[in-house]
Amino acid sequence: MQGCACRGRVPSCPTAALGAAEPPCATRDSSRTRKKVQRERGGLGTAAGGSITPCRSQVGDLPLPHCIALRSEPSGMKLLACGAFLAALAAVLGHPDPALDWHWQLWKKTHGKEYRHQKEEEKRRVTWERNLHLVTLHNLEHSLGLHSYELGMNHLADMTSEEVAALLTGLKVPQQRNQTSTYRPMPGSKVPDTVDWREKGCVTAVKNQGACGACWAFSAVGALEAQVKLKTGKLVSLSAQNLVDCSRSYGNEGCGGGWRTKAFQYIIDNQGIDSDDSYPYTAQDGTCHYNPAARAANCSSYVELPYGDESALKDAVANAGPVSVGIDSSQPTFFLYKAGIYDEPHCSQIGNHAVLVVGYGTSDGKDYWLVKNSWGVHFGEQGYIRMSRNRGNQCGIASYASYPQI
């Protein structure tokens, strides 16, 4: 069999070709090879003992956790059905693909993207194409029933997962777990099957933290905003910038990251926090200028939930209100999430990003947490993500959960 570029229709590329710039593949007139491949597959379908399973592979330095493997159980041979995608991906790792020029311009226009210079744009273009292939392969698998969620080319699609973690997260997790929680569900309390605090007017509009690691501040004020609504009947956006600028003496580092309970303690000791209108967000560190006359809320105490206890988290969300949590958002599938129930087995339980759980429910037999993010409305489901519930504390969503009290 001679080497050839995988062009035109999908060729029959052997598994061993993975990682090669131009994988060896069957030539177009090699009908003998195609018939042999079909026999080894047990036919083109999976009825003859075959099954479709996810596999992991790598091309260059780009991990591809979402290829499709057609496995024929009798022979144990795995054949990739996504050879064309892998070949195309290998070709664009170093240089942009001219065939995508129009799509790139359309994406930039859609999301208002401008770059400082040509070199920066070329770098972003290559990253964007890598993410495009990840999204395409994942959504192909989703269409075949292998995933419960879809990915999309949102406003973050020109960034790497490392850049997202460095610029758009900011949770400073303490070295020791919370082992002293005294939270206990109320005796005889019944929790509903579904909760959505948005329906009760307890959740403000989705915010965008920008290139500032202030997720902890948005998560903290989100939890307090709900308590203010429940207490006073008024929904007011509170100032995340107030926390960014003024809680450094409590161990927070502004745009460099922070911790939610330290934010709550600052509000307690400061006897209040300003509204977002009076102390607007700037997405950068600034000098503290808290104004007591503009105080919009205060906090008397806070509650920390037991480490990793999803049942306690469910009870707290149902009976107390939205809860501030920390999660692992380091997988590229997280920042490219578009819709569905996010189920990512490669998630760790080490948090790097703070978000707000505003409800929970079940869809098509899959339990989920309803989570408000702070990456703008173009992320996920209009700024929200539904994350797997009762999946062994997936992504550490119940590891560090807390909420304030008034």
UniProtKB/TrEMBL annotation:
Keywords: Disulfide bond, Glycoprotein, Hydrolase, Protease, Signal, Thiol protease, Zymogen. Residues 104-164 form the Cathepsin propeptide inhibitor domain. One of its GO terms (biological process) is proteolysis. SMART domains: Inhibitor_I29 (SM00848), Pept_C1 (SM00645). It holds the Pfam family Peptidase_C1. GO terms for molecular function: cysteine-type peptidase activity. Transmembrane segments: none annotated. It comes from the Eukaryota. Residues 191-405 form the Peptidase C1A papain C-terminal domain. InterPro entries: Papain-like_cys_pep_sf (IPR038765), Pept_asp_AS (IPR025661), Pept_cys_AS (IPR000169), Pept_his_AS (IPR025660), Peptidase_C1A (IPR013128), Peptidase_C1A_C (IPR000668), Peptidase_C1A_papain-like (IPR039417), Prot_inhib_I29 (IPR013201). Residues 19-50 are annotated as: Disordered. One of its GO terms (cellular component) is extracellular space. Belongs to the peptidase C1 family. This is Cathepsin S. The lineage of its organism: Eukaryota, Metazoa, Chordata, Craniata, Vertebrata.
